[in-house]
Design a protein that fits this description.
The chain is mainly beta and 333 residues long. Helix content is 9%, strand content 57%. It has two domains: 151 residues, no CATH class; 147 residues, no CATH class. It has five helices and 20 strands. It has a 20-stranded antiparallel beta sheet that branches. It is elongated, with a radius of gyration of 23 Å. The two termini are 41 Å apart.
């Protein structure tokens, strides 16, 4: 939906794309100035585009060339686009073999996106990612798949987006899907309600479960500090996080309960956590029962963390105040 909003507000192209989207989303509330008749095909090759891209997004790099081909006919309201970019670097994240395949028919718009690999770090990555979308008659069917059969974490997520319902921009519901974390099957509650509103996303009843383990997400995703997104953990196995921590040489065990509240998630997140970990084990060493209270303000100048650890009846309490480097440079005491 963020991409959709960008398209609808991009001055050079929005009349064309609005016309196409309106065909498949009749309820789309937007003013369309009919574009002049256009019927064209194109074949574009990107070569060393980084100096130009730097004007718009300095942390985006395309070190290898990319190709774009397509055609558009305004009278038929049809469009086709095929694209391939070997490597995209966004900050420290690297995307490999980015492919777009988009086409239209009288009844639907099909958009398929795939990547062979996404590197978050040298040792943390996901492989074989595909995103399939079918847009027709005010609804979008989507499938997000991580198809690497050897991965410990796998995803085959199906969902449906309904547009123009209940005076909201869109409403999302999940369909029966497969989620695997650390070789364990997880279930997504199908009654989840996600509303894409004007400037924010409301999440209600999103729950992932594996036996007694549960993760619930409720609240709002936006850039407003008054909007809160709450994550609740119930009997959550810390071993589920080992895919993330093993890159630091840490293997975890224990049971996590508690809440994490995040405000202004999109712009400048503030975080407050109240968590408890029963029988925390790190690399086969019993740490004990841990209670964690932490907060990071939206100004991101200071983080306060209080940790209580009880092991064999002995309690150890630590209180930490973290001040990031940028805060010191700005003169924060």
């Amino acid at each position: 939906m963020l991409i959709l909003r960008e398209v609808l507000t991009w001055p050079p192209c929005h009349p064309i794309f609005k016309t196409i989207l309106k065909k498949y989303i009749p309820s789309l509330k937007t003013t369309i100035e009919p574009p002049k008749p256009q019927d064209f095909a194109f074949n574009l090759t990107l070569k060393k585009p980084d100096p130009l891209i730097a004007f718009f997004k300095p942390d985006l790099k395309i070190p290898d060339q990319g190709t774009f081909t397509g055609k558009f006919n305004s009278a038929d309201k049809t469009a086709e686009l095929n694209a391939y970019i070997q490597t995209i670097k966004l900050g420290k994240i690297v995307f490999h073999d980015f492919i777009i395949d988009e086409s239209t028919t009288d009844s639907e718009l099909d958009l398929n996106i795939s990547l062979s690999k996404i590197n978050f770090t040298d040792s943390l990555f996901i492989k074989d990612i595909t995103l399939t979308n079918v847009l027709r008659n005010d609804s979008l069917n989507f499938n997000i798949k991580l198809a690497d059969k050897n991965a410990v974490n796998q995803l085959d997520l199906y969902g449906l987006v309904n547009f123009g319902r209940e005076n909201t921009t869109a409403q999302v519901q999940f369909l029966p899907s497969d989620v695997m974390l650390e070789h364990q099957d997880w279930r997504i509650l199908e009654k989840t309600r996600i509303k894409l509103l004007d400037g924010k996303t409301e999440v209600a009843g999103l729950e992932l479960s594996n036996g007694q383990q549960k993760v619930r997400i409720n609240g709002f995703i936006s850039d407003n500090p008054a909007d809160n997104l709450k994550l609740t953990f119930e009997k959550f196995s810390m071993a589920t996080l080992n895919q993330l921590t093993r890159t630091a040489g840490v293997k975890l065990k224990g049971t996590l309960n508690g809440d994490v509240n995040i405000t202004s998630l999109i712009k400048s997140p503030g975080i407050a956590a109240s968590l408890g970990i029963d029988s925390l084990i790190m690399n086969k060493t019993l740490v004990g029962d841990a209670k964690i209270q932490s907060d990071l303000g939206a100004d991101r100048k200071q983080a306060n963390v209080k940790i209580n650890i009880t092991n064999h009846g002995l309690e150890n309490c630590e209180y930490c105040r973290f001040i990031p480097d940028w805060a010191w440079q700005a003169g924060q005491p």
